[in-house]
Design brief:
This protein is mostly helical and 94 residues long. It has one domain (2-80). Helices cover 53% and strands 12% of the residues. It contains four helices and three strands, in the order H-H-E-H-H-E-E. It has helices spanning 2-5, 9-28, 44-55, 62-75, and strands at 41-43, 82-85, 89-92. Strands 1-3-2 form a three-stranded antiparallel beta sheet. Strand 2 and strand 3 form a beta hairpin. It is globular, with a radius of gyration of 13 Å. The N and C termini lie close together (12 Å).
Length: 94
């Protein structure tokens, strides 16, 4: 999927890094409520928090929220690297 979606190696590296951050968040859960088992799908808010942490921005600030949503939408378009699910959630493609 990375090679179909992203044309340059730099774009693929960024996509890979973002997906790794989301995958880790899906496995570990939020810091405030860690998971004992990985989840196949998570709320958009958890994805946004993981991507904001990757960017080291504040997800509660306006710019931090815009940045996280922009990065999430880069992973979740149709067809995407994460599959959109009902109730503002997304899940893995595998």
């Amino acid at each position: 999927m990375l090679y179909k979606r992203y044309r340059t190696e730099q774009e693929r590296d960024l996509g890979r890094l973002r997906l790794a951050a989301v995958a880790l968040a899906m496995h570990l859960g939020p810091l405030k409520r860690p998971r004992s088992t990985p989840e196949a799908e998570v709320p958009f808010e958890e994805i946004d928090d993981a991507l904001a942490a990757l960017n080291q921005s504040d997800p509660t600030s306006e710019q931090g929220t815009v940045d996280a949503v922009t990065r999430r939408e880069g992973c979740c378009p149709t067809p995407g690297l994460l599959l959109p699910r009902a109730d503002r959630r997304a899940g893995s493609t595998i």
